[in-house]
Design a protein that fits this description.
2% of the residues lie in helices and 49% in strands. By secondary structure, the protein is mainly β.
């Protein structure tokens, strides 16, 4: 084949005097190499793809079907026209590719940048993607994805996502993401997401943290046998807020509702011990469907009522403000009512479900004689027929399923 480099023409394309050499491929002239440090306009008018080799510090605008091999570094390739059958091979580093559509093989190179790319891209570590849309990407560790969507991305550890939507992510350990929405995500251990919305997250290892969890599922996917597809080993954290209705399955969960959604709901299936769910402001609710022992805490500043329902484990309820509590079928739950200046209207719906259930009265300074007086001066709730304990002038406790106050024993209470 002839080398079209013999047909180069020099032209000045802008006011700064930068010269662009032109290369025109046709059916007779189908391959050439760029001279390092030069800028080019490359066009193929032939009926088949031409071959172009790029070396160091080149700048090129590409028109037509041209398969490119970048063997050097620090070049910028801008595709004025690119189709799904375009091929790009990169063995050099620090190159920038703009408006590419097609197949990229750059697994052995690092620190390349792709802007507005789509197609099938295989790249090395430290790769940056801006506005990837409709792409299938396999990238190495410590890669960055900015404002990407509708893509399937597999990447190594320590990668970073800015804004990602409507796609699939499978990333390694220590992944950091800002905002993810409408997507299926699998992350390795010790990863973090600032905001997760309308998405399904699978954690592969412990220590993953989400700041704001919105209408999403964590380890909630079901396999063909009707079981959870992921055991959710390790600890999972929600540190900022829970908004909408959310589902979490796993070994240990530490979640705070926050104050962003006063009616937020959380359903958990936790099988390990030591988990904690803390309410925020409003009438939020949490339901445990698993066997693990949880601690449920109502926020002291809440002016609504936090609703918490336990599962089959021995759960602990800490009511620092009004709290609606259901112990579940655990063999011995602890319902701890704390004295606060504002007081509370607390409810236990199933105190008689286990003979080992205990009510704690903390911070009231009560003696056994005081407790006896409380048990002797109960009232009846007109709606449920349950027994109301008047703990002090600001705090009451309704035992919805206790219809005979004389059945209450001092041994069922702990004073502290």
């Amino acid at each position: 084949m002839n080398n079209k480099q013999d047909y180069e023409v020099t032209m000045v394309s802008n006011a700064s005097g930068n010269a662009y050499k032109t290369i025109l491929f046709d059916d007779e002239n189908t391959s050439t190499n760029l001279t390092s440090g030069q800028s080019y306009i490359v066009q193929n008018i032939g009926s088949s793809a031409a071959d172009l080799t790029v070396w160091f510090n080149n700048s090129a605008f590409i028109f037509g079907k041209i398969d490119i091999a970048i063997k050097g570094s620090n070049s910028t390739i801008n595709y004025a026209s690119s189709t799904a059958d375009s091929n790009l091979t990169i063995s050099g580093n620090y190159n920038t590719i703009i408006d590419f559509s097609g197949t990229v093989n750059a697994s052995g190179s690092i620190k390349n940048t792709f802007i507005d790319a789509t197609g099938n891209l295989t790249t090395g570590a430290y790769t940056s993607f801006l506005n990837a849309n409709g792409a299938t990407i396999v990238a190495g560790a410590k890669s960055q994805f900015i404002q990407s969507s509708n893509s399937t991305i597999t990447t190594g550890s320590d990668s970073v996502f800015d804004t990602f939507s409507n796609g699939t992510i499978n990333a390694g350990i220590k992944t950091i993401a800002n905002t993810i929405s409408g997507s299926d995500i699998t992350l390795g251990r010790n990863s973090s997401i600032v905001t997760l919305t309308s998405s399904s997250l699978t954690t592969d290892g412990t220590g993953t943290t989400v700041g704001a969890l919105k209408d999403s599922q964590v380890n909630w996917s079901i396999d063909d046998n009707g079981d959870f597809a992921s055991a959710g080993y390790g600890s999972f954290y929600v540190t900022g807020s829970i908004q909408g209705t959310n589902y979490i399955h796993g070994q240990s969960v530490y979640a705070s509702f926050g104050n962003m959604d006063a009616s937020a709901k959380l359903i958990v299936n936790v099988w390990g011990t030591g988990s904690t769910v803390t309410g925020g402001q409003g009438n939020q609710s949490v339901t445990q469907q698993g066997s693990g022992a949880l601690t449920f805490i109502s926020a002291a500043s809440n002016t609504g009522a936090f609703t918490a329902a336990g599962g089959t484990g021995a759960d602990t309820f800490k009511a620092y403000s009004s709290m609606q509590m259901t112990g579940g079928t655990g063999a011995g739950n602890t319902f701890d009512i704390f004295k606060t200046a504002a007081g509370a209207t607390d409810v236990i719906k199933d105190f008689t479900a286990s003979a080992r259930n205990v009510i704690g009265l903390s911070g009231f300074g009560l003696t056994q004689a005081d407790l006896g007086a409380i048990l002797s001066n109960t009232s009846v709730d007109s709606a449920t027929g349950g027994t109301i304990l008047h703990i002090d002038s600001h705090t009451t406790l309704l035992l919805s399923d206790v219809h005979d106050s004389s059945s209450l024993q001092a041994s069922s209470f702990k004073l502290s």
